Amino acid sequence: MAIVSLWILLGCMYLILPCCKNAIEGQHFSQSGCKLSYRIADCSHFQLTSVPKDLPNDIEELVLVFNNIKRITRPSLSLYPDLKSLSLQFNGLELIESDTFQGTKGLESLSLQDNSISTDYIQASEAFRFIPSLKKLDLSRNGLNMNMVTALLRNLKSLEYLSLDNNMIMRLEDSVFAGLHELKQLSLQRNYIYEIETGTFDHLVKLKTLNLAFNSLPCIVDFSLTQLQTLNLSFNQLEWFQSMENDVEFQLELLDISHNMLLFFPLLPRLHHIHKLLLSENRMRFYADLFDAISSTVDFLIIENNSTNISSINLWEEEKITSNISTIQYLDMSHNHFTYLPDGFIEKMTSLIELKLDWNCLETFSISHLENASSLAELDLSYNKISELKINNHSQSFLGLRYFNVSRNDLQMLPRHIFSGMNGLRTLDLSHNRLKLCCSQVGAVGVHGNDCVDIRHLTALKNLYLSGCGMVLDAQCNFYGTTLTHLDLSDNHIQSLSSLQDTSRTLLFLSLRNSLPSNLSDVFSTYQNLRYLDLSENNLTNFPRSLTGLTLKFLDLRKNNLTFLPLYDRYENLLKTLNVVYLSKNPFDCCELSWLDVLRKSGSINIPDLLHVTCNFSHHFMSAQDLPLDVLHSCQWKTGGTLLYLLLTLPICVTFLVALLLVILTFKDLFLQALKRCCRRSTGY
Ligand SMILES: *[C@@H]1O[C@H](CO)[C@@H](O)[C@H](O)[C@H]1NC(C)=O
Ligand SMILES: *[C@@H]1O[C@H](CO)[C@@H](O)[C@H](O)[C@H]1NC(C)=O
Ligand SMILES: *[C@@H]1O[C@H](CO)[C@@H](O)[C@H](O)[C@H]1NC(C)=O
Ligand SMILES: *[C@@H]1O[C@H](CO)[C@@H](O)[C@H](O)[C@H]1NC(C)=O
Ligand SMILES: *[C@@H]1O[C@H](CO)[C@@H](O)[C@H](O)[C@H]1NC(C)=O
Ligand SMILES: *[C@@H]1O[C@H](CO)[C@@H](O)[C@H](O)[C@H]1NC(C)=O
Ligand SMILES: *[C@@H]1O[C@H](CO)[C@@H](O)[C@H](O)[C@H]1NC(C)=O
Ligand SMILES: *[C@@H]1O[C@H](CO)[C@@H](O)[C@H](O)[C@H]1NC(C)=O
Ligand SMILES: *[C@@H]1O[C@H](CO)[C@@H](O)[C@H](O)[C@H]1NC(C)=O
Ligand SMILES: *[C@@H]1O[C@H](CO)[C@@H](O)[C@H](O)[C@H]1NC(C)=O
Ligand SMILES: *[C@@H]1O[C@H](CO)[C@@H](O)[C@H](O)[C@H]1NC(C)=O
Ligand SMILES: *[C@@H]1O[C@H](CO)[C@@H](O)[C@H](O)[C@H]1NC(C)=O
């Protein structure tokens, strides 16, 4: 009895063991090499020409990506009746026989990207009859046109996700998607669609996401898909977007019409939920400023039901946006042709968080527009032609802004206290304008003047960009009350760095490119947190010695007038932390390059422009990395000065001594006699 149970036990263990072998990873392999785990079989990249037959019968997911299966047939799949998901991407699949899925009726997900389903789409369409519960189908990159798609989808009533990207669809007729009442997500990117028949998407009552990016649509008229939440129309040729004019509520939340040729701000549905509206890279502007009231009125002759009606319409009345845009939180209108924004346009967007207006032609901008946009956190006005930023004297409600970019405009002056209300401002980019910072003490003359802009006491400010503002910063100026971490002062005229004293301790990043006097005094010892320092293009003749005590990671010394760096000891702080240093375009002395060895030997330091580091040897410039031998020798002559002197003078000295000795020996007797004579005379007895 005991023996029997032992045998049973052993038998069970034998049965269980193969499965337990890799129980830790929950993974093992079939004979054909497929990876098996939790009812999933992964047979990718095997050069298989047919579906493997040795997999467990109860698998639910079969992955056959990157194989060579040109056709699939019923017997191959009927071994796996529980199959729910089948992936056949990248197989060159041409034929799906009409009874292929007869034994796998529970299939819910089928991925057929990058195959040639178009070759025999009729049989494939027949095959799809057996999988009426398919929810997810990917037919991208199969060379399909509209008729093929119509045929393929005919029997698939319960699809929820359908991708037809990268096919050859040019038109969409209203019958293409008929019957797909469950469809939630439809992607038609990268086809050649130029026409969509009215009503094509109307039956898709559950459709939430529609992606039509990268097609050739010329316009959208009477947009009426009230059920949609996300619509992507980017990268088409739209000149015009117009929604149905009625009071029906649209569910639309995200609308992307970027990278098109829109000439007008889109005519959005009157009632919608749009919070993200992407309109960058178009040709939009507002036109009312081009016309007076009379020339912008147009008479329309309307002929309907045998009666004619003439009505006058002000063309640009649409600028008084009729849609309720109060829900928009993110609006991107960058890279367009806007010269101005009509009154009330921004004021209506009371939920705005981020507004991008960069790369337009705006000439003025009124900060007061934003008075009621209390949630606005980011405003980008860079690359415009703004010469005036208007501000309401009493405006104190503009407090929420965290990011403000007005770089590359024509600003000559700013209201002096424009930033004083912006207590939350973290990032301010004023670069490439002609601006001055207020340098005098608070309360001095001209407090209300606009000749300078005051950034003192902006306690939240961390990142400040003042590059190319033509500023002259002297000892009087200060950044009092700020704790900046990132400061770009490149392309200015800094006469004294003491102006930075107030913020020097907190700075992590500092750019002083092309802005320092060449006789800069050494002032960097207080910059204890500095990690990135750009000193390039300054004609500096001396390397500031205090830099060796800092813990920099990045240092740029290009285009200066340095002849050597005072780096002797690789245990200096700087050499322990430095990761990247740029050195090229300096007249280093070829005979004083020991510092370069110190840098190169310290392991972790990368000199990206090492190939271009040159040195000067009697007016000749050569690569500092591999000096010619004769230069090295000449340098030794120069540097080994004292030793050479000794070596040269030694033979002369020896000759001289020998000569002296000979003279003494020759006249030895004479000397002795003279000596004796002297002695005798002196002993006077
Ligand atoms: C719209 O589609 C394009 C192209 O695929 C994509 O780059 C973009 O991110 C999409 N827009 C949104 C809002 O997802
Ligand atoms: C034109 O006639 C149709 C029916 O023939 C009617 O529904 C419509 O209201 C008429 N329109 C006008 C403006 O009278
Ligand atoms: C338009 O007028 C013609 C005759 O002038 C008439 O035959 C036709 O029925 C009218 N159509 C409508 C819609 O009223
Ligand atoms: C003519 O058009 C105007 C505005 O569209 C409308 O108010 C008016 O009723 C129309 N008149 C007729 C006769 O259709
Ligand atoms: C716009 O919509 C918001 C919420 O959807 C609503 O509170 C507000 O009253 C509407 N404004 C107008 C002018 O209809
Ligand atoms: C801001 O809102 C107040 C009250 O709703 C209104 O009186 C004021 O005109 C608004 N300001 C702007 C610039 O729209
Ligand atoms: C400000 O805008 C310019 C141009 O669009 C951009 O290059 C720059 O990085 C922006 N500044 C910041 C701090 O993001
Ligand atoms: C703002 O204040 C200054 C001086 O206090 C005054 O000259 C100017 O007219 C005021 N501007 C506005 C728009 O109120
Ligand atoms: C640098 O040179 C300028 C004149 O070129 C001089 O006014 C200034 O005092 C010098 N600064 C230092 C620190 O020597
Ligand atoms: C450096 O010297 C060159 C030539 O003398 C001059 O053009 C350039 O303005 C100088 N740069 C600085 C930052 O002083
Ligand atoms: C570089 O330094 C030398 C002196 O070391 C000076 O004669 C020369 O004018 C400087 N060059 C520039 C561009 O400042
Ligand atoms: C190169 O070195 C020579 C001395 O060897 C010096 O006279 C000359 O000014 C140096 N050239 C430059 C550009 O520094």
Automatic annotation (TrEMBL):
The chain crosses the membrane at residues 643-667. Residues 1-26 form the signal peptide. The keyword ATP-binding does not apply. InterPro entries: Dev_Immune_Receptor (IPR050328), Leu-rich_rpt (IPR001611), Leu-rich_rpt_typical-subtyp (IPR003591), LRR_dom_sf (IPR032675). It comes from the Eukaryota. PANTHER family: NEGATIVE REGULATOR OF REACTIVE OXYGEN SPECIES, SLIT RELATED LEUCINE-RICH REPEAT NEURONAL PROTEIN. This is Negative regulator of reactive oxygen species. It comes from Pelobates cultripes.
